[in-house]
Write a structure and sequence with these properties.
Layout: H1 15-26, E1 28-35, H2 42-49, E2 74-82, E3 85-93, H3 108-126, E4 141-146, H4 155-167, E5 170-174, H5 182-198, H6 213-225, E6 228-229, E7 236-239, E8 242-249, E9 252-255, H7 264-274, H8 276-303
Parallel strand pairs: 1-3, 1-4, 4-5, 5-6
Antiparallel strand pairs: 2-3, 7-8, 8-9
Helix pairs in contact: 7-8
The chain binds guanosine-5'-diphosphate (GDP) and magnesium ion.
Magnesium ion binds at residues 42-43, 57, 70, 93.
Length: 312
Amino acid sequence: MTSIEPKNYVGFDTITRQIERRLLKRGFQLNLMVVGQSGLGKSTLINTLFASQIAHSHGRKSADEPVERTPEIQSVTHTIVENDVRLQLTVIDTPGYGDQMNNDKCWEPIVKYIKDQHSLYLRKELTAQRDKYLNDTRVHCVLFFIQPNGHGLKPLDVVVLKKLSEIANVVPVIAKSDTMTLAERESFKAKLQAEFAQYKLRLYPYASDEYDVEEREYTETIRNMIPFAVVGSSETATIDGKEVPVRHHRWGTVNVENTMHCEFVHLRSFLITTHLQDLIDTTAHTHYESFRSKQLLALKENSAPRKRVESK
Ligand SMILES: Nc1nc2c(ncn2[C@@H]2O[C@H](COP(=O)(O)OP(=O)(O)O)[C@@H](O)[C@H]2O)c(=O)[nH]1
Ligand SMILES: [Mg+2]
């Protein structure tokens, strides 16, 4: 195929503007799920990520106050607007998984929730008169919070990470990383990365043939950084003329946005600035697609005329 350059300006180079205008009008939808034991700072991190009060967390005013628990899967939706771009953000908070004495199957409601959204979407797609734009409740990203204990993954973490990474984009983070020294954090991270490899966990971002060299290099950098050592906070302070989230400790102040202090900024730019659309696409084209084809194949098998078993 040869490419031709028109003699005069035709104007189809404006198609990107046209698409942009249409997309802006429609807005974007991101569904983010948080999983991890209660008290690991899930709600706080979500609020810090989007610089808004989205997830419900009071934080504790005193040390004797019990840590608040999320009793069941709850989702809250907010529309956030930034320079004309409307992002409808749904945060799905899961019950404090692993909080019980017996944590057998505690992941089931979480897995079921993700599959239910796939099945809901499939049903909407298959109706005779479907809406032009289906409301998308599929989980685009699961932020998995690992306890900063220095030991490594718990057997329960391994099971749950395995189950979740088969059906959704899973991004693990080391919670409350301000509680570890830099050396502890590095060795913990190395240990976790070795375990991810050992248990063959397929974590997001995935390699793709569509990536160019630059994208491939960036993905590699991100993969080496995972799990992100994060810190969240609902408190802010002005540092160098900029209001930033901070945590005050007796020994000093953690500036959440300082990359020398933690990897919060790397996580935020990865999730929001560079991979937001990829999370949505990967959910639709990889995870939902595999659910869809399994369901449709099963449907076909069930409806195929069965060979009658002759009994003598
Ligand atoms: N040291 C430290 N504490 C945190 C961090 N994030 C949250 N917290 C505190 O941990 C407690 C539980 O936080 P919350 O976000 O409600 O946890 P969730 O149960 O996982 O949603 C609160 O007192 C927070 O102030 C963090 O990054 N580091
Ligand atoms: Mg919470």
